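#onboarding

Welcome to the new folks! Below is a worked example of what a typical request in this channel looks like: someone posts a single protein sequence, and someone else replies with the predicted structure as tokens. Don't worry about understanding the tokens yet, we'll cover that in week two.

Example request:
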Amino acid sequence: TMDKSIAFAGGRRITKIILQAFKNKNIELKSIHVNETDRNVAAELKNKFPEIILSAQEIIAEQDIIFIALHPPVIKEYLDKISDKVSKDSIIISLAPKIPSEFISEKLGNKNIIRMIPNATSVINEGINPVFVSDLCHSKNEIIGLLSALGYTFETDESKLEAYAIISAMLPTYFWFQWIEMTDIGKQIGLTEKESSEAVQKTLSAAMNTLFNSGLSKEEVLDLIPVKPIGEHESQIQEIYRNKLLSLFDKIKP
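Example response:
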């Protein structure tokens, strides 16, 4: 239980993920306000989480903890709209890359700025959540305690947040479709859905342990399996990763 009111500017995916994480852990708050301009999205969220209060922008600005759950292009405009209404004591938690804490602080006249790169896997309370807390922010331990409900929550330098966005927050989406494909192939060649998904899951888990925790070098690990069925396409796949992800990083860095 936390005797603070929280608010979300934006009611889309990440708000839904965070609310689900809090619900899984039975976290009780004084109140939860959400401002979402799309009525359908707002109605769907209210349906899933009846405890939330759908509120206007000015109400969001009055709460103790304010999550800015918006994409970078619309954040600046949003900050302008709420700047004269935000209390100096409110804690602002920005979930976006690209927009520095100093910019948010200047816009709002508020020193209590936290930035976090959120994770989809927080939906099962297993997010990897890098957090930057500005020097003058109050109630730091209490807030990090709340955010820990999302999963592994750790402090880092603000300059590293965008790298974590690429290498951690977005990481599942580079692989999920491949694991689904492997499970489907397993079914095509004679396994049940359960057998196939269990084999893929357990093998991936063991493969990660082998690479990161076996004490073997990367070369030694790669040499453990002699047959490489998609070996001829590896350089092509590496090229795709490098091109796409490095150019995406250039777009999201401040």
